[in-house]
Design goal:
Two copies of one chain form a homodimer. With 346 residues, the first copy, chain A, is an alpha/beta fold. Chain A is 38% helix and 19% strand. In chain A, strand 8 and strand 9 form a beta hairpin. In chain A, helix 1 packs parallel to helix 4, helix 2 packs parallel to helix 5 and helix 6 packs across helix 7. The first copy, chain A, is globular and about 65 Å long.
């Protein structure tokens, strides 16, 4: 099976610090930032050095290691109390992805049993979270690819690839596996305004691996569907509620409506760490609104008149009834609802 | 009634040459190009110095004047035969808008009755085409605005404004009139990738006149509709076939499907010069595919990996059944079809 070599992993722990591939610079530059403190990690998540719900979770786990390391040096006996403020700030770095909270809580659950230097145990746990994510992606890749016809033409939105996860990817994991199985005829990648994750990241990942990819403006997707050129839409998720509503990159909901109208199938691929069973439906999900400058400027250059207002929601909610299948590492559910998702997740 | 002052008209004949506001430079710079030859006019249309179906038609009419002027100097007795090659090239500058052909044919129809220097008569006709377009826009503005509720929240796509026409605008003409009537609460403007007509041109026109405008990424429109924030979508057209199918900027079809799903109304505003009764349906319209670089680069900077393929259709087709009303200067038709459109146009 083909996958990205470790050297271009987005998140990595090396030489006692956290290495992040700066995704703001892709595809023009492959620049690695080396982070030594949890404050740097929080800022990197806020500034989208790293993005994608699973990758944010993994990054936060390593952030907890850095927080504990620093606190332990300063206050060896009460480092746990000392880092709570940092962890709270880290957990609020971005509001929509639940993986962030999941990873911090899982790391925090270890604290009571730790004696002495917390770094070895916490680092082992962060590495485990990372490795589990990659393994989940391989598993989802197989499950999702088996659902696709042969040959298959797919459309993906944003980047749910190696760069958005521990490695391999969720939606792109399915696409990678389908390609490895020889059934993938064509991938269309939405450029995904305003941050251009599709143009900058997904197109880059697919091109690196020789998977046939055509880039389109987001608004051209409907015409592809009308022309009968898309069999499945495959996307990731930032949070999935108990009833199967999906928060994902702005534009996902639009695609889901268009897919239903054109009888195109809609697949959401996400590890169980993305599920938030505490929320009954997508109506309760906080949608992050990012700076209007992401819409009105590009690379610092204005592309709209000075002072114009812009509305820049980072995510939207796709209701469960528009989703044909949700694929997780524990299996998949068709026509997701509270009952079949609860069975899957228990 | 408010309208843009003449000084920022996109197309203008002054001091014996054609002045075009270079729309590629907006909103950063207001640069006027002064064209002396039909070859320059053809290139300006191809390169999108001027764009928008009615503006292209008017520009072409002035282009015929320049062609005739040059030919008459060189060959006073057979200038008509001499300019046919130029007019053919001009008519092919862009394939989708029918106004281009309409304007050239209307100018050419005068040739047989011209004796001596053709410039005065041709210039008068070009000015008439220009003035008729502006008057049509005022009329459509009134007709369309009367169809809107009070208060009204609208979404527009691309730029169908003063810049796309002789002045005042088609879709933006309706929006201007509704604003003048005090019933316009909010305009949302799709940025309109890849060329960003919405961000660069529509946002600029609306801001210049103090009409409340919020810019969004194209893919955020569905969420606005889901949130109940849009009453009408109002767009222009590049060509309308006998049955009411509409070719317009890529993304229009997507909006029309989303509008129907969310019970939002869809209005197309276009002068009768935009109608092509020779085509039975939108299936026969040639859709211009422009350079992939419009998707993969911005201001010459790459925004996607080198060598990635991109599909860049400039327009899409919205079938008549998704359009609630087509407004022309001769009146409007609801639920457009071959019969009611033929009655309107006769």
């Amino acid at each position: 099976m083909k996958h990205l070599p470790d050297t271009i992993r987005a998140v990595d722990w090396q030489h006692d610090c956290l290495h992040l591939l700066d995704q703001r610079q892709l595809p023009l530059r492959q620049e690695i930032l080396k982070l030594q403190t949890v404050q740097e990690v929080t800022k990197a998540i806020q500034d989208m050095v790293v993005r994608g719900a699973p990758a944010i979770g993994i990054t936060a786990a390593y952030g907890v290691v850095l927080a504990a390391r620093s606190a332990y040096v300063q206050r060896p006996t009460d480092w746990m109390a000392h880092i709570e403020t940092d962890l709270h700030t880290l957990s609020k770095a971005r509001p929509t992805a639940v993986n962030l909270t999941y990873a911090i809580n899982r790391m925090r659950a270890l604290f009571p049993q730790i004696t002495g230097n917390p770094v070895p145990e916490l680092l082992a746990e962060a590495r485990l979270i990372h490795e589990e994510d990659i393994q989940a992606n391989y598993r989802m890749g197989e499950l999702g690819a088996n659902l696709l016809p042969n040959p298959c033409r797919v459309l993906t939105h944003c980047n749910a690839g190696a760069l958005a996860t521990g490695g391999y990817g969720t939606a792109l994991g399915v696409i990678r596996t389908a390609f490895a199985h020889g059934k993938l005829q064509q991938v269309y990648a939405d450029e995904t305004r305003p941050w251009l994750q599709g143009a900058r990241l997904t197109a880059w990942e697919l091109k690196e691996e020789g998977i046939p990819c055509v880039l389109i403006a987001d608004s051209a997707a409907a015409m592809l569907m009308r022309n009968g050129l898309i069999d499945w839409i495959i996307v990731g998720a930032d949070r999935i509620t108990a009833n199967g509503d999906v928060a994902n990159k702005i534009g996902t909901y639009s695609l889901a409506v268009l897919a239903r109208y054109h009888h195109v199938k809609m697949m959401v691929v996400a590890p169980t760490t993305t599920f938030d069973s505490t929320l009954a439906s997508g109506n309760s999900i906080i949608i992050e609104e990012r700076s209007p400058h992401e819409v009105t400027q590009l690379h610092g250059h204005p592309i709209a008149p000075m002072g114009i207002k812009a509305w820049n929601p980072a995510f939207d909610i796709t209701p469960a009834e528009l989703i044909d299948v949700i694929v997780t590492e524990k299996g998949y559910v068709e026509h997701p609802n509270s009952t079949n998702l609860a069975s899957l997740l228990q």
